[in-house]
Amino acid sequence: MDDLKAKYLGLIGEASDEATLEDLRVQALGKKGEISLQMRELGRMTPEERQTAGPALNALKNEINSALAAKKEALGDAALDQRLRGEWLDVTLPGRARRQGTIHPISQVTEEVTAIFADMGFRVAEGPQIESDWYNFDALNIPGHHPARAEMDTFYMHRAEGDERPPSVLRTHTSPVQIRSMESTGAPTRIICPGRVYRADYDQTHTPMFHQVEGLAIDKDISMANLKWVLEEFVKAYFEVDNVDIRFRASHFPFTEPSAEVDIRCSWEGGTLKVGEGDDWLEILGSGMVHPKVLEAGGIDPTQWQGFAFGMGIDRIAMLKYGIPDLRAFFDSDLRWLRHYGFSALDVPTLDGGLSR
Amino acid sequence: MKFTLSWLKRHLDTTASVDEIAEALTDLGLEVEGVVNPVEKLRAFTIGKVKEAEKHPDADKLKVCQVETRDGMQQIICGAPNAREGITVVIAHPGVYVPGIDTTIGVGKIRGIESHGMMASERELELSEEHDGIIELPSGEVGQSFADWLADHDPARVDPVIEIAITPNRPDALAVRGVARDLAARGLGKLKPLDTPNIDGDFQSSVTVTVDADTQDGCPVFCGRMIRGVTNGPSPQWLQDQLKAIGLRPISFLVDVTNWFTYDLNRPLHVFDVDKVAGNLRVHRAKGGEQIVALDDKTYTLSAGQMVISDDNGVESIAGIMGGAATGCTAETVNVFVESAYWDPVQIAYAGRALKINSDARYRFERGVDPAFTPEGVDHAVRMITDHAGGEVSNFIQAGRVPDTSRAYRLEPARVISLVGMEIPESEQRQTLTALGFKLEGDMVQVPSWRPDVRGQADLVEEVARIASLTKLQGKPLARATAGVPKPILTPMQARLRAARRTTAALGYNECVTYSFIDSTAAALFGGGDDATMLENPISSDSSPS
User: Fold this and answer.
1) What is the distance between the alpha carbons of residues B310 and B286, in angstroms, rounded to a whole number?
2) Which chain B residues are closer than 8 Å to A333 by Cβ?
3) Interchain pair B458, A102: CB under 8 A
4) 8 Å CB contact of A217 and B545
């Protein structure tokens, strides 16, 4: 029995994993285990022999069990120790980056402009990109032969052979939406009409497709003084400055009378454009009091109602505010450009949080 | 549209500076695109006096001069034959850029002797072609800027050129006089009266003019006079200088006169060489197919309906667009017929576009010249021609009648104030319109014949507002449409689009904006490419919105 004890305690001591311990337990205390077999011999012993062997065997059995349990625990501790040493986690590491998408500057700036004008009660009106000749030109007091019509390089839609109806056009401005809106809602009204417009022109500062946003406000006694105020407030809000140096000067558009153009003070020093300072002026807006003929075309009585309209290029004001140098790149879909000039999805322009970060 | 300050001052009595004039023009709606002030490149040059001039020991043609300058006595070597003691000269100091020789002067050694600067000739300063000698001034203080001396003594040499953009509604501003009128109405000076010529004919013109019945709507009036015995040749220097200053090339006096009035009074004219005209002039519509070699030496084929002027030989002029080479004036021309006509803007526009001719005449006729000025226009030209080139003047020839474009609109001073939002007293409103050539009878305003753009009351408001100046307009807050906190304005669909866009971006996608144009093969793959979305005039072959 002492030999058994020594043997098993030794083996248990040397065991390096739980599987080995299990084997040893089976070997010693399993159904056919050495100590179990000895315990079965107890039945053939005399009562005097059993009185000694019994407690001794039990004690051995307990000692082996204890040794097994202790060793198992020790092995478990060692295993845990090893795991702890090998499997540690640095919680000070930054979170794993997830791919960020972007919003295109056109969409972002459109939302900025919408936020500003929504505060002043302007809704967003939309209209078709393929327009009739009437809505795009005639309704806006631009007659057929007038140089103003020739000055706009218009995309005409295909007509079948022999079809003599006036051709449809890709709208050259979003002004037709103002006519449609007047027809549907009448006066008083305040709307902005952002959208794609088309002109057959392609060079460093012109693309055949670009974006405009026009505005219209008609009521009983809206004046040009109101127009000037609205445009001044818009420019300050959009460029996020407290003071802005703008020039409001007489001009001409067929659809407004009187007409005015708005320039913003800027500097081109060092090749980069800086808005708000400098000796140069950059034209950013066209505007005026809506021409009575245009009101009539929209079904509104010019003797009862008056108001103003204005228009600007969204791509252009985006380039000015965010320092984007080339207009053509807006439509290249180059991922590098999109990632660099795009806006985060969560950067929603709001008046309470700011239009830009 | 370009003009010089001195040209403007022929019509405007003013003491305003170029800068004040430029600022006013932009504010009035005649946007200044640029001002070229030749005096600026001469600012660095100063005046000096030559005290001594000795022959250079090692060069026969050079003189070593001691010159009293802004920087004290300076030694300057000069090769000009007229360099001598006692003359007042123009000096380019070291460091100054000389435009005529495209060089910046430095301190140099010429054949071993130092020279500190240069004494300039007129050509070197780009004042003229004079290069026989250096400039000798009749007066001037040592150290004075040459630019200042010129401004005082010879302002014509440093005449600033102003370029303005003309909007389609202001054909009258295509005349320097029209620009002057606007400035006078703004208060920057007084408009000088136009000296109307009073000409009696001395003989019956051998050339008469008729306008076919079917062409009278396009040419309601055609005026002219014959002048016989003129001496053509180069124009007087002042005329050549003015034309050159605005970028036109002087050709010969008779041609230059027509260019002068085109820009001075927006009155394009044509001069026929009568000795090359067979029979009389007839204004009619082309049958189609006729050819003409025009003054630009190109051959044009006319389409049916386009207005032309013919003689017994055939078509001699594309009406209102360009004269023909065969009957044009040359240096040898002696007998002329001066034409001043009114052509319908729409017909000129269509013909000009179809023939692809972009002439000054077409540009102005299609925007509208003053119909009432047609007869007087002849005589202004005739007077200028005979004053310089001599000749006998015929009777006045006129086919048709000056069209009656008279119209009047009511001035409602209260409405002007309400629309503009600026207090402009009624007296000022009336004064402004009068200064612009409108005639007021009670509250009815007669529109002057040179303003085809004024077609209603709203146009009167614009005139009053722009002259009063929009810079004086004080912004007035636009009241909220409904009091209180603004309500949301997006439609459900607009809100949905916005949400979809930002959700997609948040998921890691980059929004792009692409052209709506696509070639038909690609469009078909997406169910498009039909006739309804096809472009007639795409920019490139792969274009048709999908």
Assistant:
1) 10
2) 512-514
3) no
4) no
pLDDT given at position A150: 64
Nearest to A331 among B167, B504, B513 (CB): B513
Q: Which of A101, A221, A289 is the closest to B504 by Cβ?
A: A101
CATH number of B41-156: 2.40.50.140
Tokens 């000088």: give the residue: B192
- CB nearest B29 (choices: A221, A250, A345): A250
Residue A335 phi/psi, 5-degree rounding, is -55, -35
Query: pLDDT-based confidence at A152, cuts 50/70/90?
Result: low
Q: Which residue of A has its CA nearest to B534?
A: A158
In 3D space, the residue among A104, A168, A138, A167 whose CA is nearest the CA of residue A335 turns out to be A104
Query: How far apart, in whole angstroms, are the C-alpha atoms of residue A338 and residue B504?
Result: 14
Q: How much is the pLDDT for A148?
A: 58
Query: pLDDT at position A182, please?
Result: 97
Would the CB atoms of B545 and A130 count as touching at under 8 Å? Answer: yes
| Chain A residues near residue B505 by CB distance under 8 angstroms | 101-103, 344-345
Test B458 with A232 for CB contact under 8 angstroms: no
- Considering Cα of A234, then A237, then A240, then A245, what sign does the dihedral take? positive
Identify any residues that bridge with B545 across adjacent strands, giving them in sequence order. Answer: B517
Mean pLDDT by 10 residues, chain B (546 residues): 96 95 97 89 92 90 93 92 93 91 89 91 86 92 91 80 95 98 98 95 95 97 97 94 92 96 98 96 96 96 97 96 96 96 95 94 95 97 96 97 96 94 95 97 97 94 95 93 89 97 96 94 90 86 49
User: What distance in Å separates the CA atoms of residue B281 and residue B514, rounded to the nearest whole number?
Assistant: 58
Q: Name the residue among A341, A291, A311 with its Cα closest to residue A173.
A: A311
Chain A neighbors of B516, CB-CB under 8 A: 129, 170, 196, 198, 209
pLDDT band at A151 (very low <50, low <70, confident <90, very high): low
Question: Which residues on chain B are in Cβ contact (under 8 Å) with A220?
Answer: none
Q: Where do the domains of chain B lie?
A: 2-37+160-191, 41-156, 209-400, 408-472, 488-546
Spatial neighbors of B348 by CB under 8 A, at least 6 apart, are B319, B320, B321, B362, B365, B366
Quick one: pLDDT at residue B133? 92
CATH of domain B209-400: 3.50.40.10
ipTM above 0.85 for this complex: no
Instruction: Give the chain B residue nearest A102 (alpha carbons).
Output: B510
Say yes or no to pLDDT of A234 above 50: yes
What band does A219 get if pLDDT is binned at 50, 70 and 90?
very high
What pLDDT sits at residue A149? 67
CA dihedral B438, B439, B445, B450 (to 10 degrees): -40
Of B474, B511, B545, the CB nearest to A225: B474
Using CA coordinates, name the residue in chain A closest to B30. A251
Domains B41-156 and B209-400 share a fold: no
Residues of chain A found within 8 Å of residue B167, distances taken between Cβ atoms: 251-252
Contacts of B531 in chain A (CB under 8 A): 158, 160
Strands A189-198 and A123-124: parallel
pLDDT of A50: 86
Tell me if A101 and B501 make a contact (CB, 8 A cut-off).
no
CATH architecture label of B2-37+160-191: 2-Layer Sandwich (3.30)
Residue A35's pLDDT is 86
> Least CB-CB distance to B421: which of A146, A226, A291?
A226
Say which of A129, A158, A251 has its CB closest to residue B29. A251
Cβ <8 Å between A249 and B31: yes
Half-sphere exposure in the Cβ direction for A147 (13 Å, CA) = 19
Rounded CA-CA distance B515/A315 in Å is 13
Fold for domain B408-472?
A: Phenylalanyl-tRNA Synthetase; Chain B, domain 1 (3.30.56)
| Range from A122-136, A260-274, B118-132, B166-180 carrying the lowest mean pLDDT | A260-274
